[in-house]
Specification:
Blueprint (H helix, E strand, L loop, with lengths): L1 H11 L10 H5 L1 E4 L5 H6 L2 H11 L7 E9 L6 E4 L5 E8 L11 E3 L5 E3 L7 E5 L5 E4 L6 E9 L2
Antiparallel strand pairs: 1-2, 2-9, 3-8, 4-7, 4-9, 5-6, 5-8
Length: 155
């Protein structure tokens, strides 16, 4: 099963050895996933891309795929509300931790100042388009957030 493989690969990373070099490193720890990984084949599939484009109402043509393992521990500051619209067209996150947290996922901010927090459920995920109006954040709650972050980047 691919999720079991991803969880195993994530657990094999020595996250405690990641050096904090600047403020960005305080936010989260990242590990790049090589282009020959099975995830690249899956998320490059034209049928999946077409489904995502229809569902998210966005055009991913010409985007470059970038996939990372991501770890957020209690020592990470996580994120204030921000936009990824300058570099990423769409973000897809898959949670790998075994525990479910109804309040540990990404917080989506609407233009009317209301928010909706995606639950952080084991073996689940969600995606959102990155636009000039789409803000998101993550609140630090002391959880160990283990995930894969798939981004369709603007070229």
């Amino acid at each position: 099963e691919i999720l079991a493989q991803l969880r195993q690969e994530h657990e094999a990373i020595r996250w405690e050895e990641f050096e904090i070099k600047d403020e960005d490193d305080l936010e989260s720890s990242w590990q790049f996933i090589d282009d020959d990984h099975v995830l690249h084949k899956y998320f490059s599939n034209p049928e999946l891309i077409s489904f995502i484009e229809r569902t998210a109402s966005c055009d991913l043509s010409g985007c470059e795929l970038k996939i990372n393992y991501k770890y957020d521990g209690p020592h990470h500051t996580l994120q204030e509300p921000h936009r990824d619209s300058g570099f990423s067209k769409l973000t897809f996150q898959i949670f790998l931790q075994e525990e479910d947290y109804p309040d540990g996922g990404t917080i989506l901010h609407n233009s009317d100042k209301t928010t909706f927090e995606l639950p952080m459920l084991s073996n689940s995920g969600g995606f959102f388009s990155n636009t000039k109006q789409s803000w998101h954040s993550v609140k630090q709650r002391g959880y160990h957030r283990k995930s894969v972050l798939v981004r369709y980047l603007l070229k």
